[in-house]
Amino acid sequence: MKNTFGTCVCVTIFGESHGSCIGAVIDGLSPGVKLDFDLINARMNARRAKGEVSTKRHEDDKIDFVSGVKNGFTTGTPLTMLIENKNVRSGDYSKTEFLARPGHADFSAQCKYHGFQDGRGGGHFSGRVTAALTAAGAVCECALINKNILIATHIANCAGVTDRVFSDYEAEIKSLVRKVFPVLDDEAGERMKAKIIKAKDNLDSVGGVLETAVIGMPAGVGEPWFDTLEGIISHAVFSVPGIKGIEFGAGFAVAGLFGSENNDEPVNKDGIVTHLTNNAGGINGGISNGMPVVFRCAVKPTPSIAKRQNTVNILTGENDIIEIQGRHDPAIIHRAAPVVTAVTAIAVCDMLSQRYGTDYFSVGGVGL
Amino acid sequence: MKNTFGTCVCVTIFGESHGSCIGAVIDGLSPGVKLDFDLINARMNARRAKGEVSTKRHEDDKIDFVSGVKNGFTTGTPLTMLIENKNVRSGDYSKTEFLARPGHADFSAQCKYHGFQDGRGGGHFSGRVTAALTAAGAVCECALINKNILIATHIANCAGVTDRVFSDYEAEIKSLVRKVFPVLDDEAGERMKAKIIKAKDNLDSVGGVLETAVIGMPAGVGEPWFDTLEGIISHAVFSVPGIKGIEFGAGFAVAGLFGSENNDEPVNKDGIVTHLTNNAGGINGGISNGMPVVFRCAVKPTPSIAKRQNTVNILTGENDIIEIQGRHDPAIIHRAAPVVTAVTAIAVCDMLSQRYGTDYFSVGGVGL
Amino acid sequence: MKNTFGTCVCVTIFGESHGSCIGAVIDGLSPGVKLDFDLINARMNARRAKGEVSTKRHEDDKIDFVSGVKNGFTTGTPLTMLIENKNVRSGDYSKTEFLARPGHADFSAQCKYHGFQDGRGGGHFSGRVTAALTAAGAVCECALINKNILIATHIANCAGVTDRVFSDYEAEIKSLVRKVFPVLDDEAGERMKAKIIKAKDNLDSVGGVLETAVIGMPAGVGEPWFDTLEGIISHAVFSVPGIKGIEFGAGFAVAGLFGSENNDEPVNKDGIVTHLTNNAGGINGGISNGMPVVFRCAVKPTPSIAKRQNTVNILTGENDIIEIQGRHDPAIIHRAAPVVTAVTAIAVCDMLSQRYGTDYFSVGGVGL
Amino acid sequence: MKNTFGTCVCVTIFGESHGSCIGAVIDGLSPGVKLDFDLINARMNARRAKGEVSTKRHEDDKIDFVSGVKNGFTTGTPLTMLIENKNVRSGDYSKTEFLARPGHADFSAQCKYHGFQDGRGGGHFSGRVTAALTAAGAVCECALINKNILIATHIANCAGVTDRVFSDYEAEIKSLVRKVFPVLDDEAGERMKAKIIKAKDNLDSVGGVLETAVIGMPAGVGEPWFDTLEGIISHAVFSVPGIKGIEFGAGFAVAGLFGSENNDEPVNKDGIVTHLTNNAGGINGGISNGMPVVFRCAVKPTPSIAKRQNTVNILTGENDIIEIQGRHDPAIIHRAAPVVTAVTAIAVCDMLSQRYGTDYFSVGGVGL
Predict the structure, then answer these.
(1) Which CATH number does the domain housing residue D352 bear?
(2) Cβ of B76 and D116 within 8 Å?
(3) Which of A91, C208, D127, D168 is deepest in the core (most CB within 10 A)?
(4) In total, how many domains does chain C have?
C-alpha cells in the first residue's frame, strides 16, 4: 500500500497544497455511524491556523461529503470528503522552486519523483493535506464514540515548557475537544505561546512533545507479532508531518527502571480486572489490556524558517543559499495535536473492525 | 494481516515456546540471493542466550531450510526455515499456569483468545519466537548486502551506562556483527554487564536503549503518507518484545531544538549531494535522503523477575500472588539487538523491493 | 481491503448514482506517465450511453483531475479524478424504493447495510460508478502504452450473434479503440444491435460474451499460488457489474480436449522463444509466458427490464410486484467492454509495478 | 502479496515437490475451532493419488501440526502444518531438466526466476503443493462447520461424460465428503474413469469441469467493487493448478438468456426471503444473497503426457524434442476437486472473518 492506511477500515488521502482541493476516502467503515458535525468541526478548527502562533494562510476547510453519507449517517460504502483550496499563493514559492528547503522533503522527493512532483507549497507533502487526514479521523471518532471510546491529544511539552499529565481522563479528554491550543494547564499554554512568538521574532521555530490517550479501548485488540497495537498506531502516527519519535506508557523511561518498578500488577477491583499502574501504556504483548492507551510523540520544529540557510539546487545539484518566504507556522505542535488524534482514531477504528467485524460501529438499521 | 509483515517481501512467523519447532516463511524475496551462512549464524548466535547475563535455557538454534533454497541461493519462491525446540521444561510453568505474570501478555492474551492460547513458556508470545524472526531477518540482510546496504544495532544505554555514538559507520557496523554483547565501547559494555548481574542478584531486571544504523540506503524510498519509512520501520520494530518507544535521528530531542538547529542543510560535496547533519535520521517527508537511517528503541526490563508480585488468576479473576520460577534473562537488551536488526532488514528489504522490483536483489542467473 | 484494488498500484473508487460526483484515486502509479487524453476520452466515450441500444440517461463525463497530475504528466502521488453527476432523476426510483429489483443487489445490499445504503439509482452499486473505473483504467493504459502493452475488448458474442476472433492483434486492438460498439466484424455488430433493439421492444434485455486481449505483456509476471495472473485479473474483472464468468485461453473448452491437443508447444522462431498455440491464454503456472493474454467474460442481460416481476419489499419482507421505470439499457455488453479493458489495465499495471518497481512506467525526468 | 491469500484469515503455502516437506501457515483463524480430523483426513485422502486414474507416486500425507493447535482446538495464533515428502524420485527429471514441458510453467518460471527455481518435479509449481493447500482448506472447513456452512465439489463433466446436477444440496454435499472420485451419479463416474484410462493408454490425458456449492452462507457478505464474492473466490480458485475458467450460477449461459429469464425473483416463503431461481449463483452485486453459492471451474487435461512433443531448451533457447518420463496422472480433475473445495473454504472463511470479526468461528472458551 501507499497513501492508504488500514486493513478493514481503509483511509486514502490525496491532494496538493496548491491544487483545487484535497480529500480523503474512508472505505470499510460500518454503515449507520451518525456523523457528529460539532465534533468534526471542532477537530477541523483545532487544526486550522489561527493567531500569532500560526501561519497567515487561512482556509475555511468546509468539508464536502460527496459520497458515503445519507441523512447524516454513513452508508457503509466509500465515504469521500473534499476540501477546497482557496487561499493559494503560488508566487511565494516560484523564486525558490528548485532550492531544497532544509528539513523538508524537497530533496528526497526529487530522488523519488524525478522532477515530476508538484513542488508548489510542498505539493502532496504539504501540511495542508493534514486537513483531509483530520476530517477522516474525525469521522472515525464518530464511530468510536458509539462504543464510548474517546481520544484526545495535549501538548505535553513545547519549547521547554511542560503541561501537567492526565489525571481524570474522561473529563480532560472531553475538555480538550474545544481547545485550539490543547493543554491541560492553560497557564502553561500561555507560556508555551510566548516561547513560540519569541522564536518567530527570531525568524526561527520550535518543537515539542504531544501526549495522546485513548480510553474505553476493549482488552484483547492487537496481535503478538507485526500487527501489534503499538506497531499499527506508530505506523499511522509517523504520517503526521514532523513527528520523529513515539513512545508508549513509560516509553524511553523504561531504560532506567528495574523490572520490579516497570511491571504493572493486575488487580481485581470490585469484580473488574485492571492494573495498578500503566507503564505499559495499555498494551501487553502487542494487545490492549483495557487500561488507557497512552503514548507521546516528538514533533520537530517547523522546518520553514525565515533565516538564511545553505542548500542545493535540486536541478543542477549546485550549492546555493535559501531564504524562505511565504506564510509559515513558528510551531506546528498545536496544529499537529488534532492530526495525531485523527490518525489514532483511524488506526483504532481499523483494529476494532478487524476484531469485531464490519457492523461493530453500526447503530440501529431498518428492514430485513 | 496479522503475524505477517510486508507488502512485496512478506515474512510470516509461527510457533510456540514449548511446541516442536518455531519458524518463518519469507515470500517475495528475489531469486538468486546467496545465503551467507556465516552472517546468519552470527545473528543467531548473538540472539542466543549465553553467560551470566542471560537465561539458562540453551538451544542450538540450527536452522532447517525446508523450502526456497537451492544450492545456497534463494529460488524466489517461499523460503521456509524451521528451528527445533529442544530444551523445553514445561514443568516450570505448570504451577502458575493461570496466574497472569505482570508485564507479560498473559492477561491481554486471555482477553483475546479466551483460554485457547498456549500458555506454556509464553506460547506464541515467547521471546523464543524471535529466533525465527532473527533467522528471517538474517536472510533479508544477505539480500541487502548484495546492494551494499549494511545494518547494525548497538546498546546505546543499559541500566544507566551509556555507549559511545557511531563515528565510523561502516567499520563499526562490520565490527558489531561478531559481538554477542553489542557495544561500540567494550569497556562500557563491561560496566553494563556488571549492572545486569547486580539486578539479577536482586531478583530483578534492567532495560535500556538500542541504536540501529542502516547505511547504503538509496535516497527516494518511502511514501509521504502512511507508508513513510519511519512508519514502516516502527511497525516492524514494535514486534520485538519489550520495545516501548522508537525515535529517528534527533528523536525526542527535537522538542528542545530550534528549527535553525534541527534542519539538516543539504550540500554538494565533490559532486555528491549529502547533508551537513543528520537530525532527520536519513528520512525527510517519509522518504530516505541518502544519509544513514538511524533510530533508537527503548527496551523495557525483562518482566519475568523472581520477586513476589501481586496479580490475578485469569480463570477465576481472583487476586493472587505470583513468584515466577523458570529460566529467565535479567536483561534482554543485548539479545534484542539482533532482533531489531532483523526486523529492520525485513522492513528495508520490503521497501526496496516495492521501489525497485522483485529482481532487485538477484545476482546473476542463467539461461533465457 | 474493500473498494480498493491493487498491491503497488492501488485504485479506489467511490460515489453513488445520484450523488454530486463519482470518482477514483490511483495511488502508486509511476511519476512521469504522460496522459493521453485522446485515449482517455475514447474509453469514456465508449462506456457512455448512446443510441437506441443504450439508456437515455446522458452524462458528459468530463473528468476533473484534482490531484496527482502536473503539466499533463503523473506526479507519482495519488491521482484523483472526479466526474460530476448531472443528469439525475431520482423520482424514477422513489415509487419502488423498497422493492428489491430482481437481478440487482437491492436485497443483498439490505442484508449488508441494514437500510443505511443509498438506494437511489442503485447508489454505489450503479453502473454509473463504472465511469470512474473506466477513467482510472484509461490512466493505467497510458502507463502501459509507454511499455508497448496494448489492451482491447470486443464483443465475442451477443444474443446469439458471434463476432470473429482476433487474427492480427495489434491492428485490431488499435482499431477497437475508437469503436463505440466494439466488434471486429462490423456486420456482425449490426446484427447484434438488431437483436438488442428487438429485446428492448419486448421490454426485455440480452447478455453476451466479451473477449479481451493484452499484447506486449512481458514473460515472467505473476505468482505460482494465489497471486496468479489469472487470479488477479479475475479478481478485478468480477468488479464489472453483470459479469458471471471468466475463462482464459481455451477456457471451458479445455474440458473437451486431450492433453496432446491442449498443450502449447514452445518453439524458437528466429531467436525468439514463443509458442505454437495459445490455449493457455498467455499464462502458465500463473505466470505470463509472453504470448497474448486472452480471456473471455460472460455478461448477463441487464437486470432492469420493464416487464412485471415478482419480488419482495426489503423493509417489510412482504411479497410484491415490481414494474421497473427509469432509463435503462436493453444490453450493457458494449458498455461493459471498456470497463473490462479498464480493470484489466489496472490489474496489469499493478502486477508490472510489483515486478519491475515504481519507476517502471516513468518517462524521462529532470534534475538529480 | 504473493503466495499468501486473505485479508483477515491468511494462508501461506510453501514447499517444493522434491524438498523435505511442504506446508501451510494459517493466520487469523478464530481461537477455539475444534479440528475434525475425520474431515481433514477425508479431504487429504480425496486429493491423494489412488488407482489407475492417478499417478503412481504415493505419499501418506500425514499432517504434522507444529503450531497453533492445543488439545485439538485452534489457539488463534498461526497454525502451521507440515507434510513430509517421502516418495521422491528426482532421477525421473534429470534427463529433461532444461527442456520446457509443454503446458507446464517451466518456461514462464525461467523468465521469472532466471534459473534459480527448483525444477525437480516441478518444484514449487508441483501439484504436490496442493496437499498443503488441501490441509489448510480442511482446517478452514472445520471452522465453517461450526456455522453450518458446508462445501463440496463434484465432477460436473469429464472427457465428455456429464454428472447430474445438485438436487438436494445438504445430503449430496455430505455424501461427497467420503468419495475419492466425487460424482453425484456413480455410474457416470465409472464412465468417466473408463475414458481416463483410455486416454492414458493413448499416452494422453483429459480435462473436465468441476462444480462447487457452498450452503449456509449468510446473506450480506462481499463488496460491491473489487472485493466482490465472485472476485475473491475466483482469485483463490485460479491457484488450483490447471484451472482456466470459472463461472458462477448460470455462468456463460447468461449470454443466451433474456433478462426476464435470467433474473432470480425474490420471494417470501414462510417468513424467509429466498429466490425462486439461482442463476446468480447466490451472489448479487458482489454480495451473497443467502442462496447456495454455486460455481463451476474448467480443469485442463494434465500437461504431463508421455507422447513426444516439440519444445525448447530453457538454457540455450534451442528447439528440441521432449518425451516426458515419470509418474503422472492421466487426469487430475478428481484430485483437483478437494483442492477447489479447500481454496473455497479459505476464501469464505476470510470473508466471514472480515464481516463478523475474529471470534466468529470460536466455540466456547474459559476464564475471563
Answers:
(1) 3.60.150.10
(2) yes
(3) C208
(4) 1
